[in-house]
Amino acid sequence: MANKAYQRIYTQLEAITKATVTLKASGVSNDELAVVDGRLAQVVKTKGDHITLQVFSGTEGIPTDAEVTFLGVPPSLKVGDQLAGRFFNAYGEPIDGGPAIDGEERQIGGPSVNPYKRRQPSEIIPTGIAGIDLNNTLVSGQKIPFFADADQPYNNVMAQVALRADVDKIILGGMGLSNDDYLYFKHEFESAGALDKIISFVNTTEQPPVERLLIPDMALTAAEYFAVEKNEKVLVLLTDMTLYADALSIVSNRMDQIPSKDSMPGSLYSDLAKIYEKAVQLPDGGSITIIAVTTLNDGDITHAVPDNTGYITEGQLYLRTDPDSGKVIIDPFRSLSRLKQLVQGKKTRDDHSQVMNASVRLYSDAQNAKTKLENGFDLSDYDLRCLDYAKAYATRLLAIDVNLKIDEMLDTAWELFGEFFTKAETGIKQQFIDKYWVGK
Amino acid sequence: MKSTGKVTGIVSNLVTVLVDGPVSQNEICHIECEGTNLMAEVIKVNGKQAAVQVFESTRGLKNGDKVTFEDKMLEVTLGPGLLSSCYDGLQNDLTTMTGVFLKRGEYTDPLNHEKLWDFTPLAKAGDKVVAADWLGEVKEGWLPHKIMVPFSFKGEYTVKSVAPAGQYNIDAVVAVLTGADGEDVNVTMTQKWPVKVAIKGYREKPRPSRIMETGVRVIDTLNPIAEGGTGFIPGPFGCGKTVLQHAIAKQGDAEVIVMAACGERANEVVEIFTEFPELIDPHTGRKLMERTTIICNTSNMPVAAREASVYTAMTICEYYRAMGLKVLLLADSTSRWAQALREMSNRLEELPGADAFPVDLSAIISNFYARAGMVVLNNGQTGSVTFIGTVSPAGGNLKEPVTESTKKAARCFYALEQNRADKKRYPAVNPIDSYSKYLEYPEICEYLSETVAPGWVEKVEKTKNIIRKGRDAQEQINILGDDGVPMTYHEIFWKSELIDFVILQQDAFDAIDSVTPMDRQKYMLELVLGICDKDFTFEDFEQCRIFFKEMINLLKQMNYSEFKGENFNKYQEQLKTLIDNGK
Lengths: 440, 583
Description:
Helix content of chain A: 25-40%
Distance between the termini of chain A: 73 Å
Shape of chain B: globular
CATH class of the largest domain in chain B: Alpha Beta
Helix content of chain B: 25-40%
Number of domains of chain B: 4
Radius of gyration of chain B: 27 Å
Strand content of chain A: 15-25%
Shape of chain A: elongated
CATH topology of the largest domain in chain B: Rossmann fold
Number of helices of chain B: 14
Structural class of chain B: alpha+beta
Largest sheet of chain B: 9 strands, mixed
Number of strands of chain B: 25
Strand content of chain B: 15-25%
CATH architecture of the largest domain in chain B: 3-Layer(aba) Sandwich
Oligomer: heterodimer
Largest sheet of chain A: 10 strands, mixed
Number of strands of chain A: 19
Number of helices of chain A: 12
Structural class of chain A: alpha/beta
């Protein structure tokens, strides 16, 4: 991003905040990039000839006589097949010591796909985890976040899902990753021998927060290249979107915008939707699937970030530790994949959706039994059977370290039904009982 | 002469323009940006400065860029061909756009100008007509699409001539009218109308007096919505708002359905594109898409156009209502529309109301809901627009401005409950908190007594009472324990569970269970109430539980079977045996 000779240089800043600078300039276009004192910045507001720039790396030490030049173009990324296997920073510059990418330059944050030209997602992305495949089946072109507390192993689960998923490219967008987590991802990808299909854009906690705002658009611009041009199945991992939203609120705060709920900008919904809606099943076979992480404050999903996210994404996955088995499971009650019915029973066995519903309902009966137990009441025979079932269900199916094919999951579920319940207690349609019931 | 102007300030999609002439509120203008024209709407004027919201991305826009004002408000084009179409919030036809990605500044024509329609005249020379009177008719699919005197015509006109029956395109002159001033005006099959103004042109707007069937038991049986009524569905995410709305769209007893996907997920719209051309309308046996228009402004499309989309949808509904048709408008979700208002209000630096929403939010919402309703047309026929909107309350908390404002405006309230959704009890409509004000209308009660069953509303109230009592009993059982309460508590609780499982819960993905016609709803409700009227004797609560679970299982199998078919009767026989033995 070197200065070009003919460009005009401004040297008089009128105002400086922690994230923005304002100066007088003319002929500036909205969204274009500028360099302020050697740091990259973007036009976010113009009022008459007063231009406000958001400085990605923060404004520490910027003097009022800093040199400002405008680049005339919005942020962009050079795309090409050489992206595969590489690590980049938020500006799309290599951080793995490799050479710069020589490819076509694309503006990031480009237009959205015409909804009419989209195709209905219909391909299952198997992960081997029953909490996903059986209960909340993932479909290509879907967008779904993990809602997780900071202490939960969400990055590990996400890495596991990514490496097991059958996709052509995996693109990691790391926002505010701790250096340890960044190295963890790098190590997992390398040791799985999958590096050639992985591209990473990383902003760690060591780097300025506002830079994070570029990460999702960078990752998705790369994803669009492979999905649109190469018709590939691309999986994009975004972690952690809460830190992305925090960066948004910093900028809007510095621009004196009136905050809405939880001091987030009023446009939070649209800002997040613009990212998540890049998930798409394209007509020519390519697809972009997004799995994100939204960290919660002590499980609070009413906070503006998880709340808005939930309305945008096609479901959400919750992690929790099952107290009976001590295993980390994907919570069967609150987790949801909205697209599951597009594949369940169509791309999977016909009994899938009924088995899933029955197994979750019985697990919920076990929770009621547990409440009774805690309140000191006697348990009925049914309650006791439910409790035994719940433990077996968590251990043999839900635990994320169990790796099964979907048919095996269904068979296991039928085994559990036969072991603990009568046919009527499962409430499953008679035709499936006749076909799949095992045991008495 | 059109006014022109120059861009003087940009914050995201709010642009200020220095205007050289007169400019009106809500006037449309075009901004020239990098060789394309971006459409925008005036939302505030201050001296020579007009604040406009741009319906597109403003990337690359510069101060000094040229603006042309159009001297008209945001309009839609009305005419044959609206049905089965798929538009964005500004009525651009999404199906005729080129390229996979939306291009900025690409505007497409909403109607096909080449297509020929079979025209039949309805008026004749010498007739006196006013705005919205019918001049002729074309067949749009199977629907009689009326060609009307344009809504904008003021006063009385005399028909000078009407084209003879034949094939015409939408631009052909099909009638010539003479005004009071003696001037002749040509009428074609299309007209334009500003979306933010309600279409009048009817004699009166009476109270609704009929029910609109949806095939969803928890609505039709417990809290029915009237034809021409209004309702809303609030609920946290993941509770099945969209599934419920789609079910209503598929099964609702309406002749025209307009779905406004307002700031929601694109994949949900794709679901409609994919399924509706295949699915059959249960009322006419035709393809669902033939009666459906989709207005699609998904969450990643420009915010300002999102606000316009609900108005575009409502205007199309009012147009079909003026033809004497039953129209249903579904908007998902009105919260996104309110958020669009908030974003603009925020950028305008207006003083915020609650949760940073604009202070007039409540008024805007009531105004919009008021556009629905049943009307008596000038020729005595009736038409209706029934409106059901979803609301996505922040944090699932119903004490937020959009839900509260909507509650004041809508007559039916379908509260989706997290707890029910968690237990997979779908549709997760809370049977007690939800209400339909229409059940209080004497004319509706009378209608239900005549068409469904005498004393139907009492039966509905009785059902709700059993559920209420069941909830109380359950609380007692939870506090005192299974053994700590009398046996009757268990029986009361299980009777409410029976209603819950058999009447309230419905499998939206099962071909048979998903649609329950009113006669079947009546049959099942009476069957279940009959069981609830019986007194059973049980030795212990375990026996009670097993007995009711078996009953529920049989009744659910009945729900899954063809009405009064072989399996249905078989299960009913089994149920009878079970009850006889249990007594």
